[in-house]
Every structure is written in C-alpha cells, then in structure tokens.
C-alpha cells in the first residue's frame, strides 16, 4: 500500500471536517461553544499510543465502526475536565463524577460527537459506516490499554506494530475544556481511503517507508537521550517519538505559551529543515547546572551550557538519519532562544510556509524518571526534500528484497 502527500492532505481535510461536525454537535448539545484547534495525522508505534494514554489521567469513550471502512474512534478527556463538560449536559453529574449519571452523559456525548465525525468520512467515501454502542473506558482500569488500539493499524515485518492515527484537538471557549478525537482505521481501511484519495500519485511511497522513517526518528531520539544522560549524569528515557502531518499554520499550536529555553538550529542536506531543542525553565536550570556546576547564577554561562547541550543532542538526533539515507546532513551553530514555545516555532514554520502548505513535524520528548528535566525536540524538515529521503528509503528497501 502506498501513500502520497496528496492523500495525506485529503486525510487531513477529512479529519478536520469531521472534527468540526463533532464540535458543532457538542455546541448544540451543551450550549458550550467548541472549536477545532489542531488536526494532525500521526504515524506512531502502537506502544507509543498506549503509553501516551496510560501516562495521562484520562477517561474515554470508544466507538467501533465498520462498513465502508473499519476501525475505532476514541473521545479522550482529562478526567477533571470531562466532569465539567458532562455537567453541562446532565446537571448534577459533577456531584458524582464516578457515578452512573456522569458515565452515561459521557457515553451520550461520545455517541453524538463520534457519530458526527464519522458521517463526514462516509459522505466523502460515498459509503455507509455503521457504529457500535459507545463504551466508557477509564484508562486507569486494569486491561483498558488493550482497548485503545484494538485491531487498528498495520503490522511491520520487523519491530513494533504501527498505527496511522487521525488526531483532533478540540477546545471550548468558556470552560477551557480540551479533549481529543482519535480515529484509528484498520490496515485495509487505510488502503481503501488512500485509493479514493488518489493513491499512487507523484511522490507516492509505501506506507512502510513512513514507518521506517518513524523508526529512524525513534532511534535518533534514543541516541539523543543517551547523549543527554552522558553529559548530565541524569538517566533519561524517550517518552514519545512520532511523525506528524499537519497544516503549516498549525505547527506553532503544538506548543503551549509556557516559556522555554533552548536552541534552534538549521540542518542542511537531504532532508534540510529546522530543529528546536527546548527545555522548560526549571529543566534548563537543571541541565545547565549538571554540565557546569555552580554556574546557574551566571546567565551567560547557563546560555553557553544549553547551547552545548543543544548542539550535541541535535547531532545525536540527526546523525542516524544521514547514516540510514547514506547522505550528509550538516547542522548550523546553535542559536539560543528564551521565549514562549509557540513564538520560538512560529518563524521556523513561517519560513517553510513560503514553499509548502503542510508540514511533517517530528515530535520527540525525553524525560528523567524523577522529573529532573524535560527535553522536547521538534524538527521541521522541508516537505519536498523529506519526500526525496522517503524515496531513497523505499528504493533501498526494494533493493534488499
């Protein structure tokens, strides 16, 4: 099965349209104004998806679908925010957040919102899609993780199973309630959607090539984590690493307005692009002090330490790409940044927006077990050059068969 960028663009528009229908349904049902903040397509391992659900305090509503396409949709809420929202639908539910009234209210929300979401896909595919009875799943419940991905996604010849997830972030105006809609189609359904969307066009590559590149990203993140551990003496692990496809204007929305310190670098080769290595303020202090003990009171020395860390982490993150692609990727000297996260990423996205409407956003997070520091890595490769890199990977895979 092949995917091309045009198919991904179509997928993105469909998922956004479906999410807008769901938002409209919620607004009519509860009177709470709801809007779609970000729509993205993620290529991720099944274990990464499950880990993300496990590490957040979420309650979810699951609905399976079958017919023209098969899979499952998931409406995921932060537990506290879910109670606020369902109380607007069922007054008094907030008084008993774990009771049947709250659970029933969430299931009703899921039924209406996810049904509206799938209606948009059915219209586009000119088919019928049936949905199952909504199921409430508390992620803290034993065994609930297995229900997240089900039989969605596709198996690789080696390594972890992958999923192609359509993820929509929705927010409300007055209550500041944020939640996500995930759509996880089966392998055969991805193929069906791709065929209707125009699979096989210019730039078409096997979906396995996207997952191979996703594996390269994970390997790069692991190397970056090892380098951070070696430099700071603080044991770190990769929390998540994934490849996202998003509208270019939505890239800054991936970050909050919290202040970040770190570095921005440009990388040149196949592919070229930009990378940001970002720490929250407390983490920046921790890693700088670990590299240069006693220098935390000297802003110039702290900046120098963070630049050195950013330079090493970037090299570890990207060197593996060059090896796998049998090419050379150079990196620029690190530019120190200290600003809100979205403001750091915005000029990078603006630069790429001159030549492309969508972006492949590489998103990796590295953490220490005791929260000594958090390191977020965001890479934005040039879309055309990334396609060339994917073509190389596809050609290399065919030559070894």
Automatic annotation (TrEMBL):
CheC-like protein domain sequence ranges: 101-137, 301-335
CDD domains listed in its UniProt record: CheC_ClassIII (cd17911)
One Pfam match: CheC
UniProt xrefs under Gene3D superfamilies: CheC-like
Assigned keywords, A-Z: Chemotaxis, Hydrolase
Matching InterPro entries: CheC, CheC-like_sf, CheZ_family_phosphatases
Superkingdom of the source species: Archaea
Record's protein name: Chemotaxis protein CheC
Organism: Halogeometricum luteum
Organism ancestry: Archaea, Methanobacteriati, Methanobacteriota, Stenosarchaea group, Halobacteria
């Amino acid at each position: 099965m092949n995917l091309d960028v045009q198919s991904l663009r179509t997928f993105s528009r469909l998922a956004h349209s479906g999410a807008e229908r769901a938002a409209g349904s919620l607004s009519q049902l509860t009177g709470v104004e709801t809007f779609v903040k970000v729509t993205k397509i993620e290529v991720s391992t099944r274990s990464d998806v499950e880990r993300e659900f496990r590490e957040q305090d979420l309650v979810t509503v699951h609905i399976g679908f079958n017919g023209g396409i098969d899979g499952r949709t998931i409406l995921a809420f932060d537990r506290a925010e879910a109670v606020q929202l369902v109380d607007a639908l069922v007054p008094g539910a907030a008084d008993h957040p774990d009771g049947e009234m709250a659970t029933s209210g969430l299931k009703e929300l899921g039924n209406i919102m996810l049904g509206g979401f799938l209606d948009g896909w059915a219209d586009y595919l000119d088919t019928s899609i049936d949905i199952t009875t909504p199921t409430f799943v508390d992620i803290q419940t034993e065994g609930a993780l297995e229900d997240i991905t089900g039989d969605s996604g596709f198996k690789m010849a080696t390594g972890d199973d992958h999923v192609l997830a359509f993820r929509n972030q929705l927010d409300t105006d007055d209550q500041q309630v944020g939640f996500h809609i995930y759509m996880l189609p089966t392998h055969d359904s991805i193929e069906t959607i791709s065929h209707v969307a125009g699979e096989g066009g210019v730039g078409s590559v096997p979906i396995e090539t996207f997952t191979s590149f996703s594996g390269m990203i994970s390997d790069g993140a692991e190397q970056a984590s090892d380098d951070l551990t070696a430099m700071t003496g603080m044991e770190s692990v990769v929390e998540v690493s994934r490849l996202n496809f998003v509208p270019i204007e939505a890239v800054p929305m991936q970050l909050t307005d919290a202040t970040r310190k770190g570095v921005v670098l440009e990388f040149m080769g196949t592919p070229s692009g930009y990378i940001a290595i970002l720490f929250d303020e407390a983490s920046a202090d921790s890693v700088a002090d670990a590299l240069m003990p006693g220098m935390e009171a000297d802003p110039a020395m702290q900046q120098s330490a963070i630049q050195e860390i950013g330079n090493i982490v970037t090299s570890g993150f990207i060197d593996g790409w060059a090896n796998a692609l049998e090419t050379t990727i150079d990196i620029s000297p690190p530019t120190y940044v200290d600003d809100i996260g979205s403001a750091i990423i915005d000029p990078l996205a603006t630069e790429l927006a001159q030549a492309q409407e969508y972006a492949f956003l590489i998103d990796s997070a590295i953490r220490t077990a005791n929260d000594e520091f958090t390191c977020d890595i965001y890479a934005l490769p040039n879309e055309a050059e990334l396609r060339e890199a994917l073509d190389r990977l596809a050609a290399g895979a065919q030559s070894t068969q």
